[in-house]
Please model this.
Amino acid sequence: MRTVRTGFVRRAAVVAALLLPFTSAFAKNTYYQQFGEKAGIRAVVNRFVGYVLSDSRISHYFATTDIPSLKSALTDQFCQEEGGPCTYTGPSMSSVHRGLGVNEAAFNALVSDLIKGMDRQHIPVAAQNNLLSKLAPMESQIVTR
Ligand code: HEM
Model:
């Protein structure tokens, strides 16, 4: 009886070990994976920045901004915050936004555009909330008036 059970357990362990690579490949475990990895984050950033640039509440802030480089910086930043293999190498949030005169209404408008972009790309709510929870504490470095 003992050998039967041991044999079964051992066989189950072998089957589990063989299946593991497939389950981890298909299970959308990490927030980074839930975003669709780097390509999914890039797609969210494209949508998000598109909404920002056509949002009359805040588009004027970006009148002289290099948009491709903004998109690339945001992609790295979001990827890093969601646990992906990326590093945001740009300046600190306080030095980037110093002097722009961002107020709370503008901050909230931008966040609503980000949520719209994530919804449009069908990002699961848990992953959306995780990113928002990482960005929320940055408000004190971005809002200056
Ligand atoms: C959580 C909210 C925000 C995050 C995470 C964020 C992040 C960033 C990042 C990563 C950059 C690029 C930095 C670089 O590489 O040079 C950037 C630039 C910029 N952000 Fe934000 N930002 C936020 C909120 C806002 C808000 C609310 C506004 C204004 C409504 C704003 C206006 C700008 C502008 C105008 C630039 C470009 C500055 C330039 O042209 O040099 N940001 N932001």
Notes: The two ends are 75 Å apart (CA to CA).
